[in-house]
Structure formats: structure tokens, C-alpha cells
Amino acid sequence: MFDYDRLSGVDPHPDGERLAYLSDAPGRPQPWLWDLSGSGEPRHLPVDGTVTRCVWRPDGSRLLVQTDPDGAEDYRLAELDPATGTVEWLTADNGARHELGIPYGSIGNPYSPDGRLLAYASNARKRSCFDIMVRDLATGDVRTVLQAGDPLPEDRYFPMFFSPDSRRLLVLRLHQNTEQDLFAVELAGLSVEHVTPHDGPAQYLPAGWTPEGIFLSSSIGVVGKDLPAGPQKDAINELATTFQSKYGYPPPQFAQDGYSAVKLLAAAIDKAKGSDKEKLRSALEGLTLLTPNGTYKYSASDHSGLTADYISINKVTGGVITPTDWAKQQLAGLTGK
User: ∠114-120-126 over CA atoms, to 5°?
Assistant: First the structure.
């Protein structure tokens, strides 16, 4: 069905019936559409340049692309009509660079939840800085909502997410890879709130708003407090208690992933009596280990080692990630015994 060397940038259509993705089948990454019903072949939506990211409008009427026309990384933005393939360029071909979020990444959503606004970063005013621009999708009007150097220091600023009510925009200041800051811009009056004040260098991972009632999936370690007592909960608490004591907040899923990975590697090295790669592979393929992520059971034919039993479906309630009633029933049997 697919003719490609590389697939990336997958974004499901809001109706859940189609996928947009990037494929290099035409020779360089371009946007394609695929009907999830399996009917028909994937359809190419041609646009000039190498496409680095694609995002659906909230209503699914347009597909936004970030494209590199000539390899100089002076990215332009365009919206494509998925029905006709018509391309509407949103930014000029003037040598400036426009970014939908963090450079070389796909974190964040440039559209406001109400579908009225599009946020992006631009260095058109001054090549060494990135300002935050917001486009009114109905009128095409573009305004600067945060200018580097006024009132904040000259630097690189990138949009992350609009607030659930579309009234504020979360912005990341990327001073360098190990020093960042987060700001909230109030779009009506353009007041700026420094969300992460600190002394000295500090790193802040891209964040988002936590609206009430949204659903999301996670590893079981994220909701460890809701698990029944037993070895599985003990394995989660082994990490969580120390992490909470040191950093003042519960370990995020990435911390649990890393912790579990180190435990798996250490167990494999111990079983293999050394670090010979062939012996390590054999050791891993016969390894069963309880971790905060669940019980890994590797085999020669299963290099994932973890089943969907260890995924929780959650809802944000009172600002807290909590398993749904259905998930609680599923998790009730995960004691680890």
C-alpha cells in the first residue's frame, strides 16, 4: 500500500477517519492522505519544497504544512485544501524563517481550539530573533503578539499551545538547549506573564494547558496511586517516592521510561555476566522483569515486552490525571503478583 523510504509527521484528521502523514515517496517529504477505512490508495497533496510538518485545522477543512522551499531552512507556511489540493501560502518567500513550534520538532498545536487563530514564530523582522505572530484565519490579518526585545529580551520565542478558551498563548523562550523559559501571552491586551521565574540557568520542557475533562492515555506509573496494593505498586513507589522527595513533583512518564530501561539493561547485563552484545540480546530475549511501567516479558519474537494491559485511559479531573471508571476496572487486577 505504501511506497516510501521514510514516514513521519502523522496527524489524524479531526473526524478520525483519515490520516495526514509525510512520505518521501516523491523524492522528498511531502504530505499524503490515507483513508483509515482502507478504501482507495494514499493520495499525494503536492506542495513546493521539503515538508517538515503537517497539522490539521480543528475543523479539518485545511491541512497546514511547514515547508523548506530550497534546502536553506527558510521555512514557509501554507494551508492545503484536502479536497482540491489548492495551496494557499500564508507567509512570503522573502528569505525569512517561520516555525510552527520548536525547531526540528512537532510538539505543540499552532491552531487555537476555536479554530479562529494560527500562531507561528518568524524572524522576518530580525534574523537573529524570533517574534510570535498570530494570524486571523477569517480575515488573513497578522499581528505581532510578542516581539523579541520588547518587553522581553531579544531571543528566540516559539508558540506552544493556545489556552482552552483561545484567549492566551503559551510561548517557549529557547535561549539555548539547556536554558529555556515559559511565558503566557494574553492576546487581547498583549500582557505577558512569566510562568517559570528562576535564578540562574534552568531548563523547562515544552508544556501545555490542562483543561478539565480531556482524555489521555499513559503508562500505569503515571496513575500508580490508583493501583491496588502489591508488587506492581511497590515498583512504582520505589521510583516515585525518591523522585518526589528530590524534585518536589511526581515522576513524569519519561522519567519512568528511563528508569525502567536502566533496570532492564542492568538485569540483562547481570544475566549475561557482561556486556557482550550477543549475550545481552539473548539475555533480554529471555527476560521477565517488574518495572514501574509494568512487567516486561521479552522473547525472540517479542521485542516490545509489554502488553496494552499496562496502558491506562485517563481523564483530567480537578487538574489531576485520573483513570476512567473503565480503566480502574482494568487496573484492579494489576497487582504484579
Answer: 150
Work out the average pLDDT over 8-19: 86
Average pLDDT rounded to a whole number, residues 129-134: 98
Q: Could you tell me the pTM of the whole model?
A: 0.67
CB-CB neighbours of 330 under 10 Å: 17
**How buried is 107 (Cβ within 10 angstroms: 0-12 exposed, 13-18 middle, 19+ buried)?**
middle
Question: In the predicted model, is pLDDT for residue 234 greater than 60?
Answer: yes
Neighbour count for residue 307 (Cβ, 10 Å): 12
Compute the residue count for the chain: 337
Higher pLDDT, 287 or 40: 287
C-alpha neighbours within 13 Å on the C-beta side of residue 153: 8
Query: Cell numbers 528508569 label which residue?
Result: 259
Name all domains of the chain by residue range, CATH numbers in brackets. 7-194 (2.120.10.30), 215-331 (3.40.50.2300)
- The burial class, CB within 10 Å (0-12 / 13-18 / 19+), for 91 is buried
What tens digit of pLDDT does each residue of 161-189 get?
Answer: 999 889 999 999 998 877 899 999 999 99
Task: Please tell me the distance from the alpha carbon of residue 250 to that of residue 252, in angstroms, as a whole number.
Answer: 6
Average pLDDT over residues 136-160: 96
* Widest Cα–Cα separation across the chain: 67
SS3 (DSSP) at 11: strand
β-pair partners for 262? none
Instruction: Kindly state the DSSP code that residue 191 receives in the 8-state scheme.
Output: -
For residues 160 and 23, what is the distance between their CA atoms, to the nearest angstrom? 25
